[in-house]
């Protein structure tokens, strides 16, 4: 599990930098201010949680089922939250908004909240 957390954290960190540069340079001309802010929110949350995964990869006990759930909830949360935001923003910029992604974003947020909650429980 530690390798999954470390590799996932590194991949999410790498892609957050790429997406951030993509948003700052290429999308700046294509997106309105609100869309750009939403895209940046996805990038920020992705990077914050990538760093958390890296720290957890060095700290958690891979033998504990709870630790596995924490890592999985962070990974799923990042994918659902940040990537649904990217999809919503990019599709709306092309006037083909993928509305089915709207309900996915809060599910990703819920997974992130669950991961943080389980982490608190683990510390207690």
From TrEMBL:
The keyword Disulfide bond does not apply. It comes from the Bacteria. Its main location: membrane. It holds the Pfam family DUF423. Keywords: Membrane, Transmembrane, Transmembrane helix. The chain crosses the membrane at residues 6-27, 47-64, 70-89, 101-121. This is DUF423 domain-containing protein. It comes from Polaribacter butkevichii.
